[in-house]
Amino acid sequence: MVARRTREPLRTCVGCRRVRAKSELVRIVRGAGGRARVDREGMASGRGAYVCPEQPCLDRARGRLAGALRASNVDFTELEDELLVV
In CATH, what number does 10-83 get? Predict the structure, then answer.
């Protein structure tokens, strides 16, 4: 019997636009209240976007994150503090 190799899903970083393994990125989700928050498990319901947990990607993602989450405004200072803590 031959063992099947499972592939890890790929996602694109909103900041740098690189395609990486889902486990290397952090998901940001817009919940029911419209507030963006970090989803470390990747299982929360709501509109989500993926970002590399690196400062240059976070800086580039500032302008694109509101569009990706379809949110009018995103409090990025709160998200940034939580994203950089790995």
Answer: 3.30.1230.10
